[in-house]
Write a sequence for this structure.
């Protein structure tokens, strides 16, 4: 069994604070939810804002649309503040997969151009890259990052080795979906620009897990999800594009965000279209789900009230606890980085010796624990997401359940 909680550096006062935070969210208290890496749980305030915006829309979808659009504009300003960006440089999209597609399908390519991506990219993005290679004759090269890397320099070195004079774009996840690896974004942006390439960051897991300052990162393109660690409604993400790169992204969907007269510029030289910021035209895909975007502003304010730095610290504290407990099991191997600059709230383990047990289903059905587990290379891989509404007791429950499942295995 796991060691008592008193062995871990926390206090009753601290736990009381996080218990009060936990009660703000809508998760089932009888369940153990350790899968924020897929979808976060809404706070009650965010859910209420979503329902209120939807109700207001339905009272008169036509007359009330201008008010809804103002709500979206306010939410965009909240989100921009939270991620360290100008609202004018943010387009709302449904998720990071869409953001990455908008960039890759929107750039002008020539056959033989190269994209360099890491070998730890999300499967949907790998599909996007394969499609681009087939459609435009692009070469997709891979930066092979060690699992785990010794430090940030290993990531930079892997990309430096993969770049060539034909590389047009460097693509990398800010936080790798599989291992939780946090990459040195500023260093990668500087490397790409030194080599004459642009940089596109998949920030699916970053907003709400770690504090962001997009204006300082130096990236040309950055896509983020709001439905994971930011705990915003499902179906809300964003694409941030530096002003100098915006007109390189052509419309993926052409509608009212397009102008036959082309673009203009404001007094600062930033592009505009139809007398609004260029990125707002990029996001114009006809009728979209505005209440979800409006409620994202509330999700931002919930996390700002708690404190983004405190949320990041709490996630790492719980991650440290689950790693310590799993390290006491000789059948568990941590494959997430341990370097303090490269690890956050995702802990991924290789679990040996569970045979043909369907671990994900067993944990859910027998113990009420939601955590992604899948077979891989003759073992199982389990990704544990620890967020502001999780507890030490839930981690104890997970580790105890795994111990019991091993004990139930038939003798070999």
């Amino acid at each position: 069994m796991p060691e008592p909680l008193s062995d871990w550096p926390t206090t009753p006062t601290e736990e009381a604070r996080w218990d009060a935070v936990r009660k703000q969210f809508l998760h089932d208290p009888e369940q153990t939810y350790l899968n924020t890496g897929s979808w976060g749980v809404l706070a009650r305030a965010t859910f209420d804002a979503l329902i209120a915006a939807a109700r207001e829309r339905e009272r008169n979808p036509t007359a009330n649309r201008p008010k809804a659009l103002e709500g979206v504009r306010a939410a965009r300003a909240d989100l921009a503040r939270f991620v360290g960006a100008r609202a004018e440089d943010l387009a709302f999209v449904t998720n990071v997969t869409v953001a990455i597609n908008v960039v890759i399908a929107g750039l002008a390519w020539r056959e033989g151009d190269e994209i360099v991506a890491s070998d730890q990219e999300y499967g949907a993005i790998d599909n996007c890259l394969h499609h681009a290679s087939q459609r435009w004759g692009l070469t997709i090269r891979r930066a092979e990052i060690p699992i785990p890397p010794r430090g940030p320099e290993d990531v930079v070195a892997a990309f430096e080795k993969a770049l060539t004079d034909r590389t047009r774009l460097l693509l990398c996840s800010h936080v790798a979906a599989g291992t939780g690896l946090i990459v040195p974004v500023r260093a990668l942006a500087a490397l790409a620009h030194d080599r004459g390439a642009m940089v596109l960051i998949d920030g699916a897991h970053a907003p709400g897990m770690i504090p962001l300052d997009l204006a300082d990162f130096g990236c040309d393109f950055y896509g983020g999800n709001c439905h994971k660690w930011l705990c915003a409604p499902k179906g809300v993400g964003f694409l941030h594009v530096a002003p100098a790169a915006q007109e390189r992204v052509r419309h993926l969907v052409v509608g009212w965000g397009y102008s036959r007269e082309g673009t203009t510029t404001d007094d600062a030289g930033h592009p505009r279209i139809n007398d609004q910021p260029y990125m707002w035209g990029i996001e114009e895909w006809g009728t979209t789900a505005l209440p979800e975007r409006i409620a994202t502003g509330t999700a931002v304010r919930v996390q700002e009230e708690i404190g983004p730095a405190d949320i990041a610290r709490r996630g790492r504290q719980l991650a440290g606890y689950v790693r310590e407990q799993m390290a006491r099991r000789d059948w568990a191997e941590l494959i997430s980085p341990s370097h303090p600059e490269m690890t956050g709230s995702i802990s991924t383990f290789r679990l040996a010796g569970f045979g043909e047990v369907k671990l994900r289903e067993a944990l859910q059905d027998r113990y009420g624990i939601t955590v992604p587990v899948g077979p891989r290379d003759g073992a199982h891989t389990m990704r544990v997401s620890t967020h502001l509404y999780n507890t030490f007791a839930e981690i104890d429950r997970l580790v105890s359940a795994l111990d019991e499942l091993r004990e139930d295995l038939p003798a070999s």
User: Anything to note?
Assistant: The first strand starts at residue 32 and ends at 33. DSSP finds 13 helices and 16 strands in the chain. Confidence is low (pLDDT under 50) at residues 1-6.
